[in-house]
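Narrative of accomplishments. A recurring question from our advisory board has been how the design workflow behaves on a single, concrete structure rather than in aggregate. To address it, we present the structure tokens for one chain from the evaluation set, followed by the sequence designed for it. No filtering or post-editing was applied between the two.
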């Protein structure tokens, strides 16, 4: 597959530059300039009539994509190719369409900026506008910012169900697309009809553009869920999006002792609005307005027993303290597992851990080498087999075999992260399905632009206080 991609890139670059070579000649320039960095861009910009400072835009990440297409469309206009399908061909198949313009009898008509304005029909105006909007939105969504909705309470109260937020792609570096055959502005499925929105026929190698920073401890991160159960065969970039807090980065030793997270044997900073599960006993049923006043969502009512009402409620320590002050509340007790309580759902299988007593476990780091033994295979076999892009991996009888060769040690190819929800007793996270590989990282949670309460109606649904709130 990688050889096929490499051949495609070579054909693409040769086609584009050969086309530009002949196009420059038709414009009265020397064709060899097309192959010279900077000089080639200067020549093309002058040829279409754009200001010279546009050359700078070719070297600004993300902006250069828009500049590339803008100059391509200007070149097409300079040859009189202004129909909608011309723009599509120029955008998708420049390695074919540019050589056609260069080597055919098509004539260079002059600088695009100086040619007569084209009179378009209403239909054409709308088609161009919609097409440009889709292309621009797709590029922005891929490279800069993507909208994301909080679907589950795993991050409450830091993030609420119904929060709409923007995820920054440029913080950690934008990933190059892996699945090009996809309907624009969709993820796994086409909305409404719920049909698959992509074809897996072409899978490109993934690279990450330079970012502003790397993933840090306590960052709120959006990532493709590695163990995606609703789409297990999806390409990496189309796996289900999750959002959690990064507890540990590659090389860190993560441990949970009695509900407190430790990183490298030091107590980690707890999120301000972190929640746990509490057992609550009251002398009478709790009214809805009490839950609303405490901003408690989805309490679990277990019925009555001997005249008392029983609940399981996920809330912060501050809210739990406030609840104790109600005269009808008899018991508010932290509902947590004991150290000896083994949770069969916990990752990895074979460990006697639970959500509050977990680890210690060392997170794989790029370049980190481990000895292959029974203990390390329990901890890291899933990463080696599923996320390291190894082929023909076998693990049997305490041995690691890759491509028919038994290994006594293994060196990791990328960094891994440990993600947890702030709603610690109501979050399926790395404690249950393992590490998040670096190539699954989508971006950093940036800010909330809208928040809707599903249990309210009309304007009361809007949580005005959360508008434009930064995510921390």
């Amino acid at each position: 597959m990688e050889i096929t991609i490499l051949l495609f890139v070579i054909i693409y670059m040769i086609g584009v530059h050969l086309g530009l070579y002949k196009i420059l000649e038709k414009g009265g320039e020397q064709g060899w300039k097309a192959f010279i960095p900077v000089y080639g861009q200067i020549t093309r910009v002058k040829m279409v009539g754009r200001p010279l400072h546009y050359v700078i835009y070719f070297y600004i990440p993300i902006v250069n994509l828009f500049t590339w297409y803008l100059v391509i469309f200007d070149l097409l206009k300079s040859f009189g190719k202004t129909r909608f399908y011309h723009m599509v061909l120029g955008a998708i198949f420049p390695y074919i369409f540019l050589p056609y313009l260069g080597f055919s009898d098509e004539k260079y008509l002059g600088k695009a900026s100086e040619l007569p304005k084209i009179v378009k029909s209403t239909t054409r105006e709308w088609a161009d506008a919609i097409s440009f909007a889709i292309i621009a939105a797709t590029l922005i969504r891929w490279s800069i910012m993507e909208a994301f909705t909080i679907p589950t309470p795993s991050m409450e109260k830091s993030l609420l169900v119904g929060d709409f937020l923007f995820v920054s792609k440029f913080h950690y570096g934008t990933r190059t697309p892996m699945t090009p055959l996809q309907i624009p502005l969709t993820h796994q499925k086409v909305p409404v009809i719920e049909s698959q929105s992509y074809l897996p026929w072409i899978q490109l190698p993934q690279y990450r553009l330079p970012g502003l920073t790397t993933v840090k401890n306590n960052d709120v991160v959006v990532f493709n869920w590695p163990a995606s159960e609703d789409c297990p065969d999806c390409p990496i970039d189309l796996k289900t999006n999750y959002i959690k807090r990064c507890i540990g980065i590659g090389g860190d030793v993560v441990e949970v002792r009695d509900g407190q997270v430790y990183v490298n044997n030091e107590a980690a900073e707890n999120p301000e609005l972190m929640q746990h599960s509490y057992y609550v006993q009251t002398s009478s049923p709790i009214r809805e307005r009490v839950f609303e006043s405490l901003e408690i969502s989805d309490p679990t009512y277990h019925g009555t027993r001997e005249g008392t009402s029983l609940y399981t409620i996920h809330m912060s320590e501050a809210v739990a303290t406030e609840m104790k002050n109600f005269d009808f509340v008899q018991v508010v007790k932290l509902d947590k597992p004991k150290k000896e309580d083994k949770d069969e759902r916990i990752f990895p299988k074979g460990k006697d851990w639970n959500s509050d007593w977990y680890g210690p476990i060392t997170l794989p780091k790029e370049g980190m080498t481990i000895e292959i033994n029974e203990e390390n295979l329990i901890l890291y076999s899933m990463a080696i087999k599923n996320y390291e892009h190894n082929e023909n991996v076998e693990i049997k009888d305490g041995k690691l075999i890759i491509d028919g060769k038994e290994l006594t040690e293994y060196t990791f190819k990328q960094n891994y992260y440990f993600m947890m929800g702030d709603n610690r007793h109501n979050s399926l996270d790395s404690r249950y399905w393992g590490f998040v590989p670096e190539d699954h990282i989508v971006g950093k949670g940036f800010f909330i632009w809208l928040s809707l309460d599903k249990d309210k109606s009309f304007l009361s649904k809007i949580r005005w206080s959360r508008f434009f709130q930064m995510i921390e």
